[in-house]
Amino acid sequence: MKSAAIGVSSVAAGTFVATESRAKTPDVSAAQVPVKLRSPDYPRFRGPFPILSTPYTDSGAVDFEVLARSARFVDWCESPGVIWPQSNDSIDLLTRDEKLEGMETLARTSRNMKTTALCLGVQGKDTDDMLVYARHAKQLSSTAIISRPPDTGKTQDDLRQYWRALAEVITDRPVMIQTHGRRGAATPSTELLIELGKEFPNFGYVKEESSPVIPRIRALLASPSIRSVFSARGAYGWLYESRIGTEGLVTERSVYADVLAKIWKLMQSGSDPEALKDMYAKLTLMFNLQHTHPGNLRGYNLHLLKLRGVFRNTVSREYGPGNSIPDKPIVRDLSLSPDEIAEIEWRWQSLKPYLKPGTFEG
Question: In degrees rounded to 5, what are phi and psi of residue 250?
Fold first, then answer.
């Protein structure tokens, strides 16, 4: 793993904005929630921040060259942001050195990105593990940080101390908290998220995906200490939640980065609600393949990443029995039947009018 100290980047154009009011949403109905004024004490980041799927070589090693290309693809798509490492496979199935090197790779890549801001994932099974990544991220160029609950966090105080430790290290950029953890981790209460937002001026950003999602979003938005709430859950509730007041999206669906960026622009402008509904409907038509095709976030999406010239292959590392973390990587290539491929590409045709024109060259 190469070591590199890279200074914190300047803010990506169009990603941070002065905070005087929550962005206006289209006037879609008389029942629409009024725009709520937000605290102007810290800039915020907004819009879709897709999580990169980790690429692998045919042998199952992390393909750092394609990881960088994936970030450049999201930038070519004009997405406001990108995140890594944050998906389950990139947190659980990579070694520490692989994650640190990947963070360095993306920090270097972000220097030349025109539109897309980099958000680095910083979390661990416990506080000591998380701090390794936090201290590394502090040296690297990124616009923001995202962190989810530790695997060992069982109480609200466990989470409180974990994120307080993160706040001591990351003081120079926003920190988003992902509310859903893994392996029995506790979910942060809305009261804890608000408390941390009050305590630390660079907190108060939340990726909300824990049940009951809508009441939790409303509770967070009622507090001036919460600066921005992001939708999640695969974007299935994004349109509705945006009208309630969410100001972005986090999802591991980077292959649709250009469509997500266009949906976000239409949400902000309110200029063409029919196009917004049509684009969103065709996007969810793609998402629904998870019910008939192998995989979900990786699975058939890897076929599309290869189709769009981002990935070289459809190789993944996999969990062991019972969702366990294997001692050695389990490497498998995606297997799709001709019928499955035909269905993917038939649905893909309906989304093509909304893709960015031209071909990504890498």
Answer: -120, 120
